[in-house]
Design a protein that fits this description.
The complex is a heterodimer of chains A (about 260) and B (about 250). With about 260 residues, chain A is an all-alpha fold. Chain A has one domain. Helix content of chain A is about 75%, strand content about 0%. Chain A contains 12 helices and no strands. With about 250 residues, chain B is of the alpha/beta class. Chain B folds into 2 domains: about 160 residues, P-loop containing nucleotide triphosphate hydrolases (Rossmann fold); about 70 residues. In chain B, the strands form 2 sheets. A 6-stranded mixed β-sheet of chain B has the order 5-6-7-3-8-9, sandwiched between helices. In chain B, strands 2-1-4 form a 3-stranded antiparallel β-sheet, with helices on one face. In chain B, helix 3 crosses helix 4 and helix 4 crosses helix 5. Classes of the chains: A mainly alpha (about 260), B alpha/beta (about 250). The interface between A and B is medium-sized, with 28 and 34 residues.
Chain lengths: ~260, ~250
């Protein structure tokens, strides 16, 4: 057992430079051939926010500071969905490499998650800008937002490993996941206040780890207070469980990947 | 494993499941499962193959299509896991199993040098020291800043050969990648193999027997997944050519 762990660690040391190359590549390729380039990382959330604010801010007028409310939720959602979808696709699309040279396959999942984290960090600048313009108080609790973000990264990695592995065997997963993420978006209080969900459907929130991560983010950025501990612990446990299942699935099936791609 | 042995292949067998490779969508799989049609049609690509390769040995693999040459090289490079048996590799591997393996098509030649170097386990700083040498040897010239998708197959193979040999691997694996280079480049490759790669081992697959004679000092003849002869390169190549003529 310990021998395997040491081998895994050696592997990681050897491929550290590959991981940074892959993240660099993901970010670079994303904006290649676009005139505005990396500026899109700022423009994308900004434009979304403008559209949503125009449509929904009067409908949900009881939400205080709709732009910040929307953005703080949307950023976490896109970090999760962007990272996990890219992780899922990258296992198949990088096949030309791992079919000819041995490369640990989890690297593709990690690089997908990390490159989406880079985009997320750039989008945070937009959030800070909007907070400044709308006179939100900058409090020390913003620093504490790093914990829910970290949990989101772990959760995204776990889910990415699971659906990435499944996608190798059944390419249907890709289409299925696209529908699922749409469903996920509507089920989460990203652009609507959470209290519009009737009590009998409350469970779509209570069992969703992302719901609590959204809440934690808003506590830190919008309401300037510390989240309650249970709101953090439930998604943390869920993230670790997903990660363990993901690692287990990849370890178990990765030797057979090459027969299916 | 003695100090001089860099590769030890011990009783390796590889089984492919033919029906397994066809289903990659859920609907088909469920239907097959319901019909109890998940049959196992097995095919042995390799049967009890054992071999040892010593430091500095240049070994060519000959055999007809489907003899298991590429499968064996894939197993040695760790891409494929053998059904039975084990493989021990002692040293750094640089496999060129297919044209431009480890390249990203949207990336330029320059960017791919760093990416490919990282795939082979070398950092950005290490690769930048070798950068000029790689570009010079590959004769890519001004195309270095052009996306690799616009390269010809000869350019791809020149670039990947330059990268793989510049990192001084202990073992170099070439599977049909030199056949697309022109005569002058093949001569350059041979020179490079003799000079800077004299300590390295080479595993070489080619359908051109003359290339095998040219580059290797030992040859292994594979037929339907088994080794039927191995030894001095000219001796084996003569036998193989005589066999092919009588087919």
């Amino acid at each position: 057992m310990s021998e395997i762990q040491i081998k895994g660690l050696n592997d990681f040391n050897k491929y550290k430079s590959l991981l940074s190359e892959l993240v660099r590549k993901d970010v670079k390729i994303k904006y290649r051939n676009s005139v505005l380039g990396v500026l899109w990382s700022f423009l994308d959330p900004l434009l979304r926010m403008v559209v949503m604010t125009i449509i929904f801010s009067t409908l949900f007028h009881r939400v205080q500071n709709y732009p910040v409310y929307y953005l703080s939720g949307q950023l976490i959602y896109s970090l999760f969905v962007g990272g996990s979808s890219q992780a899922m696709r990258s296992m198949v699309s990088s096949a030309t490499i791992w079919k000819s040279i041995y490369v640990p396959k989890y690297l593709y999942v990690l690089s997908a998650v990390l490159s989406n984290f880079v985009t997320f960090s750039l989008s945070l600048i937009v959030l800070f800008g909007i907070m400044f313009v709308t006179n939100v108080h900058f409090t020390v609790y913003i620093i504490f937002a790093s914990l829910p973000v970290l949990i989101t990264l772990v959760l995204t990695t776990g889910v990415g490993l699971i659906i990435g592995t499944l996608n190798i065997f059944f390419r249907d997963v890709e289409h299925l996941y696209n529908v699922f993420t749409l469903l996920l978006m509507y089920s989460l209080p990203i652009f609507y206040p959470e209290d519009i969900i009737p009590a009998s459907f409350k469970f779509i929130h209570t069992y969703n780890p992302l719901f609590y991560l959204l809440k934690c983010m808003r506590d830190c950025f919008l309401y300037g207070k510390l989240y309650s501990l249970p709101d953090l612990i439930f998604p943390a446990i869920a993230a670790v469980v997903f990660l363990i299942i993901g690692i287990f699935m990849l370890k178990r099936y990765q030797d057979r990947f090459i027969l299916y791609v | 494993m003695s100090k001089d042995t860099v590769i030890e292949v011990d009783n390796v067998s590889m089984e492919f499941n033919l029906s397994e490779e066809k289903t990659d969508n859920l609907k088909e799989f469920v239907i097959k499962l319901l019909k109890k049609e998940v049959r196992f049609q097995s095919f042995w690509a390799l049967n009890n193959v054992s071999l040892k390769i010593n430091r500095g040995e240049k070994v060519g693999f000959v055999g007809l299509n489907g003899a298991g040459k590429s499968t064996l090289l894939k197993i040695i490079s760790g891409v494929l896991k053998p059904t039975k048996g084990s493989v021990k590799v002692n040293g750094d591997l640089a496999p060129l199993l297919s044209l431009g393996s480890g390249f990203d098509n949207n990336y330029t030649g320059r960017e791919n040098i760093f990416l490919n170097g990282a795939v082979l386990g070398h950092s950005r700083t290490e690769m930048s020291k070798k950068f000029d040498d790689i570009v010079e040897f590959s004769e890519i010239g001004d195309f270095i800043d052009v996306p690799v998708k616009n390269y010809s197959s000869g350019m791809r193979s020149r670039l990947s050969f330059s990268i793989a040999t510049s990192i001084n691997p202990d073992i170099l694996i070439l599977d049909e990648v030199l056949s697309v280079g022109d005569m002058s480049f093949q001569r350059k490759c041979k020179e490079r193999m003799n000079n800077m790669m004299s300590d390295a081992s080479l595993l070489f697959v080619s359908h051109s027997v003359s290339q095998v004679r040219n580059l290797c000092d030992k040859a292994i003849w594979l037929h339907k997944g088994s080794i039927i002869a191995s030894g001095e390169v000219n001796e084996i190549c003569d036998q193989y050519e005589a066999y092919v003529k009588n087919l």
